[in-house]
Amino acid sequence: MKAGEVLPPLEIPVTRTLIVAGAIASRDYQDVHHDAELARQKGSPDIFMNILTTNGLVGRYITDHFGATAVLRGVAIRLGAPNHPGDTMVLTGEVTEVETGPDGETAQVRVVGKNGIGSHVTGTVTVTVPAAAADDGSPS
After folding, report:
1. Residue-by-residue pLDDT tens, the chain, 140 positions
2. What separation in angstroms does the CA of 54 have from each of 45, 98, 132?
3. What DSSP state is assigned to residue 5?
4. Contact assessment for residue 79 and residue 54, using Cβ atoms and an 8 Å cutoff
5. 42-67: string of b/e by CB count within 10 Å (b at 16+)?
6. Strand, coil or helix: what is 1?
7. CA 92 vs CA 31, 85, 100: distances in Å
């Protein structure tokens, strides 16, 4: 792991099921996340993904890259353009900083998730890869 390392993109199809399931799993019963008609009445063209689902997808993106032993130390994200059904969100990332410590290597990763109308999510994730995992020859 080194500063400047670019993570491969991850394409996530934004389905109605993903949006509703994420809202239910996070106990977010706001109608804009499951009722298209009420979402339209409130000015949205359709239902849209909640921040907790986005947060989970960002975490998945990082742990898929750095491995099952990676520990998320911090996730600081900001939402922008909504994720509506039928679109695709493409997550990209770049390691901006790496520190080696007693627990392994800790990296700051800049993450961006874009969809067809713009940036859905931007932020920074702090992740630690334990020393044993960092030395195992994995691609990160």
Report:
1. 899 999 999 999 999 999 999 999 999 999 999 999 999 999 999 999 999 999 999 999 999 999 999 999 999 999 999 999 999 999 999 999 999 998 899 999 999 999 999 999 999 999 999 987 555 555 55
2. 19, 24, 30
3. P
4. yes
5. eeeebbbbbeebbbebbbebbbebbb
6. coil
7. 30, 20, 24
**Exposure class string for 3-30: b at 16+ Cβ within 10 A, else e:** eebebeebebebeeebbbebbeeeeeee
Whole-angstrom Cα distance, residue 76 to residue 122? 8
What is the pTM assigned to this prediction? Answer: 0.89
Dig out the tokens for 91 from the structure: 């997550």
> Residue 22: which of 10, 34, 35, 36 has the closest Cα?
34
